[in-house]
# Entry
Amino acid sequence: MPGHVDRLGETRPAFTTVAAPERGATRIADRVVAKIASQAAREALPPLPADAVPPHATVVVRRQSAGGGADGTPTHSARVRVSLELGYPTDIGTQCGEVRRHVAERVRALAGMEVPEVAVQVERLHLAHGSGTAKGRTQ
# Structure
């Protein structure tokens, strides 16, 4: 087996390439993926009032069936459910769409997982009280 000469003049064995399935795998805990998703949801939303509950995510991570990715490495997917509060009035559909897109993008980038589903649940709306607006029931 041919080797290479290092900077000290010593001959070392050549490096061998190990196939991806033989190298092992990195497992990312569900709670870590949930934290990534929660942070991504916060990034996608405008700032909320101080009394608002920050977005919360629950995640189910599933190992894909045999075969894995194109290079033979196993792939994982994450199904994400995000619960959040929004300011009102707002375009709820647009905001939820932006949260879905951003959460899927960030989980894919940071955890290396495909995200086929991001369910967004709006739990509460916060009325935006500007100066001079009446506080109370909005119709």
Observations:
- Residues 92-111 form the longest helix (20 residues).
- The chain has a mean pLDDT of 79.
- The radius of gyration is 23 Å.
- The longest strand covers residues 114-127.
